[in-house]
Design brief:
By secondary structure, the chain is an alpha/beta fold. The protein folds into three domains: 2-176, 2-Layer Sandwich (Ribosomal Protein S5, domain 2), CATH 3.30.230.10; 202-430, 3-Layer(aba) Sandwich (Rossmann fold), CATH 3.40.50; 446-517, no CATH class. 36% of the residues lie in helices and 17% in strands. A hairpin with a 5-residue loop joins strand 6 and strand 7 (123-124). Helix 2 crosses helix 3 (89-99), helix 7 packs parallel to helix 17 (417-434) and helix 19 packs parallel to helix 21 (500-508). It starts with a strand and ends in a 9-residue tail after the last helix.
């Protein structure tokens, strides 16, 4: 008897429909004349899928359900699409139960099933539940059956019944009509409650008002930022507080980000959907594949996991040169393109890059606290680990000096994250209204003709820009970034025209374009 059911395969950040077909040919006997069970899985399965034969057989037996005997052929169609993972255990088991009449074959029509089976019949969680649910909704299916641990995550897709099951026996009983399982629901209006609770506050930071100002501008316009300063000046402390002032993700962005984290297998199943902008902080030993994504069928790397959020690279020169250089295209285009023998994969990677570094190997070049022990050659070699094209793609370069004794011994009385957040929200609202009807979401994405329209310069501003270009020998990209930062500074002051003061402040954040620090 032949039975069919729909499942899905993750292909990059996309989902492909997979039809699971099971046919049982009875009457296959062994040498002793007894019926023998043999299972063959075809359709380009990987080792994990081929091993499902043992998992499925034991799960059916331990669940006290009838297991088919004979020659069992499992086909995963389309046959030319390589499949991987353990999410096909549950659909294969349900098809086998359908072959022996324990589930009506018609009950398997129009549904999608995913899930891994334990030997005792328990259904284990899988990766990619949300994108699979979104795909099932797009296909117009009746429902999707998946592990109970993934049900809340999948319910964020909205518009398709999500049935969470804990065991194979429970799934079989539901499909046979013996029990009813209410669909999992999620109220998206409540997911933004207490979104900033528990995040570190800028009020805890002593001094460094200029660095706080730079972070405020970066958050308001989604600009890339690099902090340079000696050890202990508070660079990492400041950067880790940036998440407390950036606006939350919209519903569309939340689904987009949650989808990526679900595919990568790093989503907390209890959260259901991500509303805070991601903050990724990879160690400097990360590989190229760890940053952009890897494997034969690539999975998202750190760049994609930071999509719509913050990628923080501490001790920037300590990262391998090859790792830093792979960021050049994503910082410009907002996506990572990987080519493999199996095809080309595109991962979204629109990030805000926040980095920190010391001014020299010992960390005290230009410091008033301790004397630098590095030679000029050592300093230049250290700075040279970061290429000019990469620095060109960073909007703000900010010095973070060591704190004085007076500041260290004073009380903390700096501006709070809540106050800074309100300023960021106001600036982002101005940008939202300005770019309504376009693909642009923030000032950092400005380019082309729309930049000329939105960043109109008076004759005085043009004269100042010419002077800055000549003095700093700026590239065309650096010029554009100064203009974008100036636009954000103007938005923080109400969204009026750009003035010479805005341009002067924006140019002042190009520390590495100067001859000396």
């Amino acid at each position: 008897m032949l039975t069919k059911i729909l499942s899905a395969a993750i292909y990059g950040v996309d989902v492909r429909t997979v039809e699971v077909e099971v046919n049982v040919v009875e009457g296959v006997m062994n040498e002793e004349g007894k019926s023998e069970r043999t299972t063959i899985v075809v359709g380009l399965p990987d080792a994990a899928i081929r091993e499902s034969r043992e998992r499925v057989m034991n799960a059916i037996i331990q669940s006290e359900l009838r297991s088919p005997c004979g020659r069992i052929i499992v086909n995963l169609a389309p046959a030319d699409l390589r499949k991987s993972g353990t999410a096909y255990d549950l659909p294969i088991a349900l098809c086998e139960l359908g072959c022996v009449g324990m589930i009506p074959p018609l009950a398997l029509n129009g549904i999608m099933v995913i899930g891994e089976l334990a030997l005792n019949g328990r259904v284990r969680p899988i990766q990619g539940a949300l994108p699979m649910a979104m795909h099932a909704k797009k296909l117009g299916l009746k429902c999707i059956i998946l592990p109970k641990e993934n049900a809340l995550e999948a319910a964020a897709a909205q518009g398709i019944p999500v049935i969470g099951v804990s065991t194979l026996r429970e799934a079989a009983a539901f499909l046979s009509g013996a029990i009813q399982i209410p669909p999992q629901t999620m109220d998206l209006s409540k997911v933004y409650d207490d979104i900033y609770t528990g995040l570190p506050d800028f009020a805890d930071v002593k001094g460094q008002e200029s660095a706080k100002r730079a972070l405020l501008i970066a958050a308001a316009g989604s600009h890339n930022l690099l902090m340079i300063g000696p050890p202990g000046s508070g660079k990492s402390m400041l950067c880790k507080r940036l998440q407390s002032i950036v606006p939350p993700l919209s519903i569309e962005e939340s689904l987009e980000v949650t989808k990526i984290h679900s595919i990568a297998g790093v989503l907390d199943a209890r959260s259901g959907i991500i509303t805070r902008r991601p903050f990724r902080n990879p160690h400097h030993t990360v590989s190229d594949a760890g940053l952009v994504g890897g494997q034969a069928i690539p999975r998202p790397g750190e760049l994609s996991l930071a999509h719509r959020g913050i990628l923080f690279l501490d001790e920037l020169p300590e990262f391998r040169r090859s790792v830093l250089e792979v960021m050049r295209q994503p910082l410009e285009n907002g996506e990572v393109t990987l080519s493999r023998a199996s095809g080309s994969f595109v991962f979204p990677a629109r990030i805000m890059l926040i980095a920190a570094m010391n001014p020299c190997p010992c960390g005290y070049y230009g410091s008033h606290v301790r004397r630098c022990t590095c030679t000029r050659i050592m300093v230049n070699a250290y700075r040279g680990r970061i290429s000019g094209p990469l620095l060109d793609r960073i909007d703000l370069h900010v010095e973070v000096p060591a704190l004085t004794e007076a500041v260290l011994t004073s009380r903390r009385n700096g501006e709070s994250s809540e106050s800074m957040r309100q300023k960021v929200f106001a600036a982002r609202e101005i940008q939202r209204r300005r770019y309504a009807g376009t693909d642009i979401k923030d000032n950092a994405s400005l380019n082309g003709k729309i930049m000329d329209e939105m960043c109109h310069l008076s004759p005085d501003c043009i004269a100042m820009m010419r002077s800055i270009i000549n003095e700093l020998q700026l590239s065309a990209r650096s010029y554009d970034r100064i203009l974008r930062v100036a636009r954000t500074i103007a938005d923080l002051e109400g969204g009026g025209d750009i003035t010479t003061l805005h341009i002067a402040e924006a140019a002042n954040y190009r520390v590495l374009d100067r001859q000396t620090w």
